[in-house]
Amino acid sequence: MSIEIRFAKASDAPALHDVIRAAFGARPAVDPPADALQDTVDDVRAAIESGAGVIVERDGIPVAGLLVEFDGPAATLRRVAVVPEAAGAGVGVQMVATTLLALADMDLRRVEVVARSEFPKNIQWWERAGFRRARAVANGWILERSLPVAVRVPDADAMRTLGRRLAGVLRAGDVIVASGPLGAGKTTLTQGIGEGLDVEGPVISPTFVLSRVHRSRRGGPSLVHVDAYRLGSPDELQDIDLQESLADAVTLVEWGRGVAEWLSDEPLEIDIQRSDDPADDERVVHLFGIGTRWDGVLESFREHA
Ligand SMILES: Nc1ncnc2c1ncn2[C@@H]1O[C@H](COP(=O)(O)OP(=O)(O)OP(=O)(O)O)[C@@H](O)[C@H]1O
Ligand SMILES: [Mg+2]
Fold first, then answer.
1. Separation between Cα atoms, residue 75 and residue 64, nearest integer Å
2. Ligand 1 atom 13: the closest Cα is on which residue?
3. Distance, CA of 83 to CA of 9 (rounded, Å)
4. Which of 55, 72, 79, 171 is the least buried, fewest Cβ under 10 Å from its Cβ?
């Protein structure tokens, strides 16, 4: 099964319109009815042209999408839609995560979404994605979150330096969910965090060991380094008995997206992307703090290379 998430072109308007109708049409009726159901193909095309659209295809078939409206450094997500056949498969989570990263790369700072109060589960879903209720509107809430901070990292030494700097803002109880492809630099970043926390080393790839505990040399938090690469489900993470050390340690889970978020209400998500050119060492690291724990904490990383 392949999932492709991309910006929509004007010619995608009919497909995106179908996805929006299918998704909003499947919800229980609300009063007043969702504006989404009044949209015409032309409305969707106009929205793509004046802002942006995102479309998700599963095996070539459109299954999810959304529209984006821009307003200075802020963006609003509208018509966030997953067709009923694709619901519950994590498609929406992936679509929103990818959209937020793309918006962060456009140097935007903040994103909002409107959720109807008739759908509390929907509101909770946005809260798990790091959104918070900003203000009440007629039929619901405006939820908002700040966008991830993008940091350019030219080489492996700079990645360790970034790790050391991050260690300076970390404390016991923090959970870091690190993602990015093979060889992206997750372990290299963790080495820097280990140096900054001054824990016993060496921090090495835990691929053949599920988790390693590195004790502090100075009475600070331990570093628990976990590799979820081989885990099939979130339940398996429970089996490795992390709960015990969570409160006293900084826990970093490589390949943690989708399996480790529940370890904390306020995880720090770190996504590392490498360029398509294997000769190019530069990485783009996105720091994505969820919850008030990270308010103001990550801003100082914005200009840092
Ligand atoms: N800018 C960079 N940041 C991090 N690592 C880099 C960079 N440029 C080159 N490298 C090299 O890329 C490799 C990254 O490997 P690392 O084990 O940290 O990746 P990983 O994301 O943990 O991979 P895996 O998914 O296999 O666990 C290292 O050999 C490192 O020296
Ligand atoms: Mg690794």
1. 19
2. 183
3. 20
4. 72
> Domain limits of the chain?
3-146, 149-303
CA nearest ligand 1 atom 18, residue: 185
Q: pTM for the complete prediction?
A: 0.77
Would the pLDDT of 65 be above 60? yes
Q: Give, in order, the Cα–Cα distances in Å from 25 to each of 32, 113, 220.
A: 14, 19, 53
Residue 249 and residue 225 in contact, taking contact as beta carbons nearer than 8 Å: no
Average confidence (pLDDT) over 189-213 = 89
Mean pLDDT (the chain, rounded) = 90
Say whether 149-303 and 3-146 share the same fold. Answer: no
Candidate from 157, 162, 187, 207 with most ligand 1 atoms within 8 A of CB, to mutate: 187
User: At a CB cut-off of 8 Å and minimum separation 6, what does 51 contact?
Assistant: 67, 68, 69, 70, 75
Strand ranges for 228-282 from DSSP E: 249-254, 268-274
CATH number of 149-303: 3.40.50.300
CA of 130 to the centre of ligand 2 (A): 25
Which ligand 1 atom sits nearest the alpha carbon of residue 229?
25
Residues 7 and 37: their CA atoms lie apart, in Å, by 22
Ligand whose nearest atom lies closest to the CA of 192: 1
Indicate the class that CATH gives domain 3-146: alpha beta
Distance 252 CA to ligand 2 centre (A): 11
Q: Is the pLDDT of residue 304 over 60?
A: no
- Give the residue whose CA is nearest to atom 16 of ligand 1: 185
Give the confidence band of 270 by pLDDT, cuts at 50, 70, 90: very high
